[in-house]
Specification:
Blueprint: H1 21-43, H2 48-60, E1 63-64, H3 65-72, H4 76-88, E2 92-97, E3 100-108, H5 110-131, H6 136-159, E4 165-166, E5 171-172, H7 173-178
Antiparallel strand pairs: 1-3, 2-3, 4-5
Length: 179
Amino acid sequence: MPDPLPARSLLAWPEVLDDLLLYRLSRLQASAGGIVVRYCEGQFGITRREWRILALLAARGPMGSSELAAHAHLDRPRTSKAVTALAGKKLVSRTGRAGDARHILLALTPAGVALHSELFPLASQINRDVLAALAPQEMALLDDMLKRLQQRADAMAAQSGLPLADRRHGGSTRYRERQ
């Protein structure tokens, strides 16, 4: 069982970067996710973002680009770039919807299905290997806690009122206006 957090006032915690939940999750993602990226890039010739798109299409079936971007938590330009790369690799197909030429339906090709069938078990095994550090009861508790944290973060994001970042120009519009 992991060491408990040091006894501190909840109002004082977190005190340093290493205490921040999001930083700790980012480090976990970098470590375990890096293994998945090495498989993606080294063995399968796709990027992490392309893998996310491929896995979502495999899990949820054909969908439009905007819907895919929302599920992938990516902006539309990044989604479009990844879809274009996957289409170029013949892993994703683009089909116009009947009666609406502006709306394109994205789906896995047979080659995309085959790649997903090879890569998903590897990513799944990495997931199992990381979770092997926990007892079954701890895994159930972690799952419940992650669901509650996600719900809370979603609610906070919906209520934040903060401007979206303008990544093309290095930050938010509001910040640039103050300078």
